[in-house]
Amino acid sequence: MVIMETIAAYGAFCGLIIPVMRATPLIPSFASSEGLEGDQKIVDDLTDRMGISKKIEVRRTPVEEKFEYAAFGALALPFSQSFLVPQTHWISQEAKPLVYAHEIAHIECNHLLKFGALLAITIIAVSIIFFGMSPLEFALLAGVVAGVAALILYSQYAEKEADLRACEVLSDEEILSGVAMFEQIRIEQLETYNEAKAGRTGHYFADLVFRMTLNENGDNLLDIFHPPLSERISYMNAFVKDRATV
Known about the structure:
Helices cover about 65% and strands about 5% of the residues. It is mainly alpha-helical. The protein has two domains: about 1-170, no CATH class; about 170-245. The chain is globular.
C-alpha cells in the first residue's frame, strides 16, 4: 500500500505540482511588462475577438535569445493570466497577431492543465502496470518514459489546435503575415541544411549537427513538441484558402 501511494504521489508531483509552480506569481518576479504597451493593445484586441473577458498580460522574459514563445497561466489562476515574450525583437509587428493569438489559445484551451493531467495519469497508470512484473525503480522509469511520450504526442495536437483557433479569429492578412514569418524561418533553416549537406560551412562537426537536426523541408527535427514547421505553414495556408471558398 505504501509503495502504491508513493507511485501515485510521484505521478501527481510530476504531472500537477510542476505546472502549478510554472503558473504562480513567480512570473512577475522575473518578467516585466515595461515597454510592451503596444503588444498589450494587440493582446487586448485579440482577447475581445476570442470572447475572453479576463485580462491576459504579456510580459518580457529575461532570456536574451531567439526563444520560442511560452504560454503560462493555462491553469486559469486569476493571478497568472499571462505569457512571456523574448527580449530580442525577432518577430515582425505584422506577425504578432498570429503569434499572440496562438498563445492566448493555449490559455483559452487550458492546455497546461491538460498537459499536467495527462502526464500524471500516464505516469501513475504505467507505473502500476509495470509494478506487478518489475522492480519499483523500473516501474517508475517506465511511467516517466510513457508520460513524456504521451506529452510529446499531445503537445503536437495542442499546438495545431492553438494554430487553428488563432486562425479562426484573425483576418486572412493577419494569418498570412504570420505565415510569412514562419516561411522565412523555414527558408533560413533549409539554406543552413543545404550548406551543411554540401559541406560548405567549413566545419565538419557543424555540418554533421545541421544534417542531423534539420531536413530537406527546412524543419527543425529537435522541435518535437510542435508539428513540423512546413506542416504548420501548409495547414494555415489551407485554412485561408478554404475560408475563401465558403
